[in-house]
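Deviations from the work plan: none for this task. Representative record:
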Amino acid sequence: MSASKTMVQAETPERMATQPRKRPPRPQLSKRLAPYVFIAPAVIFEFIIHILPMLVGIAISLIGLTLFYIHYWTQAPFIGLQNYKVALNLSGAAGSALLHSFLITVAYTVLVVCGAWVLGMAAALLLNGNFRGRNWFRTLFLIPFAMPAYIVVITWSFMLQKDNGAVNALLGDLHITNPPFWLVGTNAFWSMVMTAIWRSWPLAFLFLLAGLQTIPSDMYEAASLDGASKWRQFLTITLPMLKPVNVVLLLVTFLWTFNDFNTPFVLFGAAPPPAADLLSLHIYVNSFINWNFGLGSAMSVLLLIFLFLVSLVYLGIFQAGGEAE
Amino acid sequence: MSEYQVSQERRIALESGKTKKRAIKINETHFYRGLRVVGLAFFTFLVLFPLYTVVTTSIKPLQDVQSAFHWIPSHVTFAPYGDIWQTVPLARYFINSVVISGSATVISVAIAILAGYALSRYRFPGRRVFSLVVLSTQMFPGILFMLPLFIIFINIQQVIGVQLYGSYLGLIITYLTFSLPVAIWMLAGYFDSLPKGLEEAAGIDGASPLGTLVRIIIPISMPGIVAVAIYSFMTAWNELLFASILTTDTTRTLAVGLQGYATQSNVYWNQLMAASIVVSIPVVIGFLALQKYMVQGMTAGAVK
């Protein structure tokens, strides 16, 4: 902050020479430099916490940083792309575990993003209108998203307990016998999906409701005059008009869900059942529990490359589609 | 864009067909009103079912939460709300979380005001690159830079003696960058909506760019700034992954500390639920009280 003041003062002689008016506007140089001074703190912190670690991460992925070298990490040997070979060798243990984790994560992401979208869309349509109590419902629906993510997961981990959990109590009341173990085996996957959808649908609801309110109502009036059913109106008016919102919403929820760490970590700790072995947790366990930082970094870099490519292709498709219309 | 762009002819047709439309509407209204009631009931149940479980569990004695679940508590006790402070050092975790999240928020908001103002009011070389890089850091998987960050922190400590691992400072500077991209984005949008004449008037009076920002822009941008502050605070308050690696016993935050209610032999579910409520209340109330601004800020980019 003080930097910009000093700079302005330093410019004073030049200003006096070129601008003879008594109260001249600020000199040009300070105007040109001002934005850089303003963004400097942001650049410095982003560099220290994001850019630099990313570069160091790429460097670590090229060395054999294992438990043996943890205290003398500068002496860890340079092994080139060896870590990547291990990670991508699908017939090896590490490679096949990574592929399994990747596929689980893809399935999880697709289910959570779709589930959250469908619920969010339904809730947004319900509240897109004027009726009494609308604001109360809106506030209520936002609560799951306003709660800290790990509290949501703790809550569900209790609800999903076999004998003392509320979900099985509810199933019992509905006369469903033999309530399942939710947090073991393949059920662990579905527990995770349920928890994540409950947490993320309000975000979809928020975005979609904001989007719905930008659609002019006379479009629907014209359509119903033409005899279009509500469902047809939804397909031909609502969905196309929501496209800009959906593009952002789906990308954001995709990235959050794909990188999700809280849900499996709070539900299962550092030893998740194989069906709940999401990538973030998989890499965490490999790095900090098995102390293989080199391999963990290589996996992280692969994850980043994957996310980057998906985002590029996604935005590319969207933009091409946008131009065609 | 859509099949049903309203044309002039349709508008006329619409007016002449008013009576027909009204007849349809009456039939539809009952059906859709019924649908709405069912839908709202479903979503209300979806949200309230877990919340009800949390609240009732937090007022049950331990033996009740370890046996079969009952909808209505047979014994009501508020003891868990007292016990939570003894079972784990919750007060210390609370203070840690408040100090870390509060400091990260203040610094993040200050930095975001400056950067957001630059993006909104200046066209300068590198502007596009800056906004692209800042936004794309949102995409990074946390796990990617946590591990290197841990190593960088250890090395900074060894080389220049500033303790970042296990200290407040390390977590504060980490968390402030997590909320920074969205904070800059939201504030730049907010500043864009302010009339430009404000600065011109101040410029004639000879105020410096920083002086204009502090005396003119910031006071009238308070709603936007408060929304950004809540967002930053929530981001830090809710973070678990980095806190689990970068904190030690003395700097543990709530997110990590709550694991203390689950011991090897026993999970104190009633206390865990009571603590969950205590931990959630500040951020839930903050979010709901300012939801209007939060929603505007978060969806502005997508809706426009």
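Residues 96 and 251 of chain B are 6 Å apart (CA to CA).
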